[in-house]
Each structure stands twice: as structure tokens, then as C-alpha cells.
Amino acid sequence: MPSLSSTARITRLALVLCLFGYLAGCASPSKVVIDVRLQPVATPSNPDIRVAIGEVVDLREFSSTVESRSLHQMVTEGYADPQVTGRALGLFWTAGGTPIWDFMLPEGRSVTMLVEEALKNAFREVGMEVVEPTEAGAIPIRAEIIRFWTWNTGSWTFQFHFETDVRIQGQLPPFESGEVISGRMRLKSAMAGGPRAYTNTVTKGLGDFIEQFKSRVR
After folding, report:
1. Residue 161: which residues within 8 A CB-CB, separation 6 or more?
2. pTM
């Protein structure tokens, strides 16, 4: 019977082999659910302007084949189903260059909901009140999600990338004719990528989106 020390060495060796296989791309493709949520910003005490976010539309187009890492694409089934792609946040690639994980919001959540949450925070941070679309006197706002994606590059040290482009339209400067607000983020980690890294990248990327919004409105 092996000693405790030899058993521990065998266990460590097994973990190293599992990690090597994961990084090299031996894992099978699967969906990984992460629930990204933004902390709501309080409504300003004396808002001068009231807006109503009437519609947020996901216009992202997903590829049926896995190509460039920065493209909207999925390695599991559902790339042609809006109910599935509407929850897609990004794709994880192994060190060997194999895409294996589709990062998804949980059922009942969607990218449109996440962008709407970011827009509500952005409007409130510039001193506006966000009300329901049924309330009279509010400026209606429409948003179109052109791009919203997270991916990684690297091998033993990963870089995580997030990009979003949202076209906003409403009778409010500078959105009268439609204005695209973008958010960008790139983070580095010495650890293997996982749900926490992707959650952090999306959250910080939406924070940049809000800052870009504020700089354009002010």
C-alpha cells in the first residue's frame, strides 16, 4: 500500500496532468454559466432630465464556424438560436488554440438586460432619472447592441479581452441621430482562465462603457 507521501505525489501528478490537458485543449466543448450583474446606481436627488429606455436590441451576428477569437461565435449548439446567442458573453480558448467553453448568462438573463443595466447606471451617473417607458414626459431611448464579446489570448499567462459597441438613439445630445458608445477592457492573469476571470473582464469592460458614455454626454 503506498505511503501518504507517495499518495500525495500521485495526486499532485494527476492534477498537473489534468491542468496540462486542459491548457493543451483536450477538454470537450461545453457551456459555462456565469451571472454578471452590475451594482445599481442610486437615482439622483434632483434630476433635470427624465429618460425611458424603451428598447434594447441585440443585433450581434454569430458565425457558424469558429475563426478569429474576437468574432461572435459558439463551439456548442445554438449559434443560430437567438434565445441561446442572446445569453452568450464570450468564448474561452486553450493554450493550444482550441475553443472549448462558451460563457453564457443563466437562463432568464440576457445581454440586452445587462446592457440596459449599464445604460441605467450611466444615465443616473450624469444626473438623469431613468423611468418606465409608460411614464409621460420622459425622453425615449433606444439602444442597439452591435458588438458585445469576451475572449482570451496567451498560454501560461492569459490576456482577457472585452469589447462592446452600442448605438444609442434619442432626442438628447449627442444621441439625436444615433451615437455609438464603446467599451474596451484588457486584463492579464498568470492563472488559467475561468469563470471568475471572464466575469471580472465583462464587469470592468462595462465600467469602461459607462465612463465613455459619461464623457460624451458631459
Report:
1. 70, 150, 151, 152, 153, 185, 186, 201
2. 0.85
